[in-house]
Amino acid sequence: MPQLVKLAALVFIAIASLITPTGNLVKAQDVQRGSEQDEVLRVDASEVLLDIVVRDRRGKTIRDLRADEIEVFEDGVKQKVNGFRLVEAEAPSSAPSAEGIGPAKLNPLRHINLVTLVFDNLNLEARQLANQAAMKFLGSELRSNDMVAVFTIGNRLHVLQQFTGDRKLLREAVQRATTGSNTQFQSKSDEIRKQLDAFYDQAERVEKLGTAVGENRGAGAGGIAEAAVEAKTAEITLNALNFAETLQREQQGRSSLYSLMALVREQRRLTGRKTLIYFSEGLQVPPNLVELLRTTISEANRANVSVYGVDARGLLTSNVNAQAGEMLAQSARASRSQLSARPGSPVTREQALSGDTAEASLRGNVQGTLDDLSASTGGFLIANTNDLGGKMQNVAADIGSYYELAYTPQARKYDGKFHALAVKVARPGVRLQTRDGYFDLPSVGKSPVLPYEMPMLAAINAAPLPRAFDYRAVAFRFGVNSDGQQHTLVMEVPLANFTFVPDKEKKVYRARFALMAIIKDAEGRVVHKLSQDFPLEGALERLEAVKGGNVILTRSYWLPPGRYTLESVALDREPNKTSARRSVFVVTPPKQGVRMSSLSIIKRIEQIAADAQAADDPFRTPSSKIVPFIGEPTLRAGAGGLPVYLVIYPAKDVSEPAQLTLEFMLDGKVVGKAAPELPAPDNQGRIPYVASIPSQSFKPGRYEIRAVVRQGGSATEEHAFFILDQ
Hints:
Structural class: alpha+beta
Mean pLDDT: 78
Strand order of the largest sheet: 9-8-7-10-11
Distance between the termini: 96 Å
Largest sheet: 5 strands, mixed
């Protein structure tokens, strides 16, 4: 009986190590039954854990490295090593039959190794090569505690197979990922998402693990461990999908980095070796997304996820490789050396003004940043070969044998800086493969903090709020769905308020600035964080014309009824000057009947590209983007028609059409009135409407526009103000 109790205790320690989030990790040595001398490497919240792959000159894994042969440095300062050990996985399970084999039985006394296969917008030839590589990896290299998931990146992140050791299911998912369409990916992902939502009751089983293990006295520990891991990996997958959608909505970009960051960040929830194999055709990162790349690398390093980039284009010619360009080479060098990124090609004024510079992150013919992402996270790049499958054996070797090293850095507050890591070994002829550092960044709400956001967070927390220059910010109200009422934030800053640095030798100017807004609920919790970094470069001869414009940030979000605080901040990065504002607003419960958005006066209408990314922006149409005035504009009398914009949401249960009335008042008196005929609702049940009001006959003064919409027995109204000047 005492032996059974001791075994149950060992099993519970192993299971606890599987489900403990990073920050309170318990890294257990592989335990043999009945052993009482097993080494345990414990990592608390203040410690840093590194996975290190060690090879000789021939690429063969070294398994006899001693702790006294290795040193670790952070920012050039030698650190005290608290723990060092070799982690050896079990031998690969037997080769599968033609029909495939089911999942290998989980060993509760060993770490779980998570492997994430990600396929990103591959063409037909690249899909074939990626399929061969992934199938070879799954066919012979899986071990009993390896759990693999399959994701695709298209218009969003899709899961095609939740983490499992079942090779048959994984091969089917890889086949779908390399032959299916985005529509099929979305359908399958939604199906799995519903299954994972239903699986959330496993959380209760995880909480009761201690009791369950004690009652079973070790007999059912394997099943309990599997249930615990399934519950935790389900949570990881769901959170990754949700977080990727949040990032893409808040940043309004379609960069693959948002999906990759979500995947690596959520894997902090499990200990053990974590690997992400990223099949793509290269990763292009323009200047405005370089810090997002660096933050993705940092999040991977914090979560102990090694990324292995696979350029699925196979063997390339030198001419094709040369297309990477100097801008991307600079981005890769900047990230690898932990220096601030420098824009390597002009970012036009139109890009800065559009507020959609993240859309410039289109995949290009680039290996530099893919290599950077891999090498900086302890992985390596697989490229310029049609034998991708052969290289996957090296990836499997990294998963199966590596060292763990833990050290405690000097205590410090979050400083937002990159902390470079270097590991040195005394033995000659040895090559090390590990991570190169991390950003010391907190999280705000559920989102990580990007490096450029740190000074803006400091500005928001300052008392009094800084006001180095002027800007405007307002949130327009729109429709209602299950998440609450949609709001669209518009921030506008005159470009003349920012610092432009001329380079007379190269005849260009440069500027860098950033905008951010944070929405907090009544308890002070952050519910949304929205930001964008703007690197600007252009011809010096156009500098004065550029200064005459404004930079605009537009972001949409949804809020349930309640009291909220909007905090906004603008940062001029060159002199590190900031301005911040704070306001309180209330979201009221939606009323029954017809509803209407905020009434806005149109400043201009911009044309957008036909292939521009669809966005949750109610100011967007398929071909144009409406830019509203913020606040109370002053217009010139007799300048022509006055355009206004609103969206009407008719009640679906009322057969009568909605009717709009516009009234114009000066000094409280109605001086004009119109009742334009409304078009039919669109396929979403909305009526977006632009009205051009003849204002030539209006005399100077301060005017109020009153819009009233009636349908059946319900009515709603909105107001806007403007000034007509001589």
